[in-house]
Specification:
Elements: H1 12-23, E1 27-30, E2 35-37, H2 38-54, E3 62-66, H3 71-82, E4 86-89, H4 96-106, E5 110-113, E6 116-117, E7 120-121, H5 122-129, E8 151-154, H6 188-196, E9 203-209, E10 217-222, H7 223-236, E11 244-246, H8 254-265, E12 270-272, H9 279-288, E13 293-294, H10 298-305, E14 320-321, E15 344-345, E16 350-351, E17 353-354, H11 359-362, E18 373-374, E19 378-383, E20 397-403, E21 409-410, H12 415-418, E22 425-434, E23 437-443, E24 448-450, E25 453-455, H13 457-465, E26 470-480, E27 484-493, H14 503-511, E28 522-525, H15 541-555
Helix pairs in contact: 1-2, 2-3, 2-6, 4-5, 7-8
Amino acid sequence: MEPVFPDYAPTVPGLLAAGSSRFGSSDAVVTPEERLSYAELDRQSHRLAGRLVEAGVVKGTKVGILFPNGIPWVLAWAAATRLGAVAVPVNTFYRPPELIRFLRHSDVAVLIGTDTFIQHDYIERLETSVPGLAEHGPGPLYLPDLPQLRRVLLWGPARRPWTEGGLGDGLDGAGAGPAGAAEAGSLGDVVDAMGDDVTPGEVMLVTYTSGSTGEPKGVVHSHGALIRQATNLAALSGIDSSSRLWTPMPLCWVGGFAFTLLRALAVGGAFITQEVLDGGQALALMARERATVVSAWPAVSKTLREHPDFPATDLSSLRSGSFYEAMPADRRPADPSLAVSSLGMSETCGPHTFWRPGEETGSPPEYRGSFGHEVPGTEHRIIDPETGEVLPEGVEGEVLVRGYNLMLGLYKQERSAVFDADGWYHTGDRGYFRDGWFFFTGRQGDLIKTAGSNVAPIEVETALLGCPGVKLAFVMGVPHPDREQDVVALVVPVPEAAGDLSEEDLRAELRERLSSYKVPRRIAVITDADVPWLTSQKADKRGLSAMAEKIFADRS
């Protein structure tokens, strides 16, 4: 199968122009309170781009985007990148030390955003964390702790002399816009000329990601890689101009941005989202907007299915995605495990494996739960991580990947430290291929070695999640003097099962599903509040391992 790429220059200016001309009045972005058409996205981002030019943004300027999901985020990204500036999404949940480290490492020169979100006051955080900022007057910023940062542009009013406000005023043509701003359109020719100079190979985005144990890293992507991947994934997953994609995943991560927003914009679909995940509001929004695709983490989907409004919500418009139980019965995959089946990462603009539409019901039973095939245009190789030897089909090893959708590199790291001599990226994932199907078996560093056997935590976690009453499951190894490690598990019950889950019952259930050496020797029930989470919304595996060691040491 050949990859499907756009028929226009794969740049943000090309994407916006194509969207406006082909889908002008159709919804591009929808929230509970607002909607933005493709024509409005093009027009308003063009006007905002003029204001950024006035603020000194040029090609290559690192523009930080600090908004929750919504129309301001999308407009800020479109305005900056249509100029050739580099968008650097900011995690809205960063604590003060994380925010300062991020701004320093990413070299953000212009920060666009909101001053507050939920309980977060970003102005206060910056002032308390950056010496001299509170006393800084108007004009460009010169701060030893953030030496590249020059301006902070707020969507709403300015709150301090060192901030500039009103950036979002009058973008729809109403109002005068921010103080000192040029009249709308007066820099239109400059914006257009800057857009003409943007090429597919130039950097569009630096997105920061972290694994469950690693430090955040800046993944650098070009216009061409991101837009080609979004177009290709849309074709593979049956997304077109009639599709309406809902997601709660933050736009500061690749799942929200590349896999959902860009996948919709690439083909004229609607991107539906909300600032904060509220179950009742989410269900009402999906029903009101006739959502066809849900892109969400399994835990979120499960939470929505358990919401009291779920039984009465009309979700008959859903066609695919990670919301299996809500899909019409005649459109469901044969196996619920296939509802979420692609494997991806920030480094490949999202998924690098996929299921072809229709294969869910026809796949061999023994292949159920695998992660499908290679995305066309992407290559994989399985190697022995110790020797580097390429392994034959059916033999498990480390997964390597390369292709059109691979990142340009990691920010501030030399290429030789990121890719091998042949251009392969070593993912740290483990798996194997058989008959053209890819099977994921876990992370390289997650394997549990117990009494000479290897256990993949993901396999045991999947089995636990299939047990009645289990909402979340975390499996890990804890040290043992004779067996090297013991397999143990921490589980969170669904609300109605709290107090009823027992270690004995779960182990008995797992003995029917797993080989004996994979069944956890100890299982502890914890609460939602006990689970440590990283700012990436991934469970903190170091924290979980420390918790498990303490729990089982205290009980021994």
